[in-house]
UniProtKB/TrEMBL annotation:
The keyword Repeat does not apply. GO terms for biological process: amino acid metabolic process. This is Glutamate/phenylalanine/leucine/valine/L-tryptophan dehydrogenase C-terminal domain-containing protein. GO terms for molecular function: oxidoreductase activity, acting on the CH-NH2 group of donors, NAD or NADP as acceptor. Pfam families: ELFV_dehydrog, ELFV_dehydrog_N. Transmembrane segments: none annotated. Belongs to the Glu/Leu/Phe/Val dehydrogenases family. Keywords: NAD, Oxidoreductase.
Amino acid sequence: MAAHSTAEIEQTFKISQEGGVTIFEPQVRQDGVQLFIANDGPLQLARPGNGGMRLLEYPDEKTAIADAVRLAEGMTRKHNCYNTGFSGAKLVVRCSEEVTPKSVDRLSLMEDCADALEALQGTVWTGCDLNTTGDDMDMLVDKTPYVLAGLGSKVDTNIATAMTTVGSILGLVDAHCIDINTQTFMVQGCGKVGMHVARTLVSLGAKKVLTCDISEERANIEGCTPLSSSENWYDQDVDFLVPCANSLAINERVLQRMPPPSFVVGATNQPFSSHAVRDAFDKNGALHIPESISSGGAIMADSIEWALPKLFRTVEPQLVYDWILDVSKAKSKELSLRAENEALNIKRVVDCVYEGSDTVPVGLRFPDWLRENGHEVQTE
């Protein structure tokens, strides 16, 4: 199906530009709610934008748009890292006035989102993100096909994301010739992704896994050591800092207070509050695996769902998770070795492990991995 003409899109959306990112704002039914669709690059069917729908309270429109732009650019890096077949996009829903993520009329919101995606005619796809759920996506997919969220499959995209974090950790363990049984971890954030990261680290035999969350009960994970309400995660002396919460949490205070970890690897999009803080962590020897590698599991699953929908719906989910872990482990290990296992070298060599758009999209490579590991493949 061809995309709508430029004139039709201009009639449907209020459109603005931030660098290479275009922001589309459709009309919505609810007062106190705004929807922004940020797409990094031109709209195209051959390589559509893909990014989840984030639902948060923002103090003003400018802040919400800035978040959408930042996240869309981050999604481009993720998609390019693994060549998923997509470009970067992000949907940001701004709640304001008396509306909160808990009180928003979700059915009405999903209807507005569906109308917007239909107007863009397959050039932008979405799925879950902060404060949006599988139930939301079920409502959305009833009204538009441009949804990638593991629907019709038993694959949990939260576990998929967690497996890139764990795979990236294991890649570093291999590259640095260390034993995970000797390593300590601080998992910051134990929500839909962080809890799976923490559980998996325990199952792999990590020496100690500290956990924390703004909802303290979520940090109570079997085999882990939750921080008390009087303890701060940034005061912990650990080998691995594993951020799995909101963006920009690693800030100047963390830099000043936290004993430098050996590694920073997590699921959080853009964990550092600024380039200066990231550079300071590098100088302190904290080797950071970029989130384009360590949190790309959901979009790797999306790549299968988009390219091989029948296989995605029928494959055993654990095989998808194992594949994601293997691919991210190899990429993390390659990056660290290219950097000679030095934190300061990561930025210089990271582009070397990104894949060009002329390579086979990662989802289409999944059947080869299945065959190599002795599994039957049915793609028809």
